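Session log. Operator J.P. requested a structure for one protein chain; no other inputs attached. Running the standard single-chain path with token output.
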Amino acid sequence: MKSMVLPGVVLLGLVIFVHELGHFLMAKWRGVRVPQILPWGSGPALLKWTRGETEYRLSVVPLGGYVQMAGDSPGEDGTMPGGPDEFLSHPWFGRILIAAAGPAANLITAFVVLVTIGMVGVSYPDHPNMLGAIADTSLAYRMGLREGDRITAVSGAPVDSWIAMLIAADKPLRSEAITLHVERPHAAFDLPVSPQDRVPLFSSLRRVSDPPVVGGVATGMPAYKAGLKEGDRILAVDHTAVRVFEDLPAALHGKGDRPVTLTVLRNGTVFDLEVTP
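Structure written below.
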């Protein structure tokens, strides 16, 4: 969770910056005077400079922001601003444009980002097309697949990585059967997969790099109270080895409200934790 805080703050800060910039540019375009803009941050000023009629500020805390426009509120005696370069004396349609420019800037930015990602593409980490630990209760195990097997072709199309295997398996229509060519030390065979077994089979496959490692711990939940942390690898439950996450439900079945012992590997150290599911 801590690793997500900084990117979250930066992303929110950029959203606020674009939002306030939209208000600012529209106000300037409509001829409304802007004495001060703080497009990013709150609290004491970290940097400030003046250009023309506007003072630009960046503050210490990278959250919040505002655009101060001339005449954006009535005077203390209730009198309304009357200058042509003041916000409240501006025509109603101009005020609407200025108010809508912030959200519009966010929408336009989101559209541009999505189109750019679609044109440039996104890279995903790939893995070898070798199977990791397979739960004894899984469909893959019942069909004869074992840890260390390598799927080298799908319906005759050679594959050399995990993503290539998934793409090849998804190309035929869901109503069509496929055939996997499987290689293991000193053996090779073809495995026919019926249409109804395609999705559950591939859902039960695990990569070599898919051990039972804790991805996140919710505050206040039993795992959190027991001391489990993100990145911990669970080796055993009550001294019964755990190879894949699918082994955990079976190991914990019937043990609700009773303490169990988890054997955990953390930073090269193996230790036991007691947790009540």
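Operator note: The mean pLDDT is 86.
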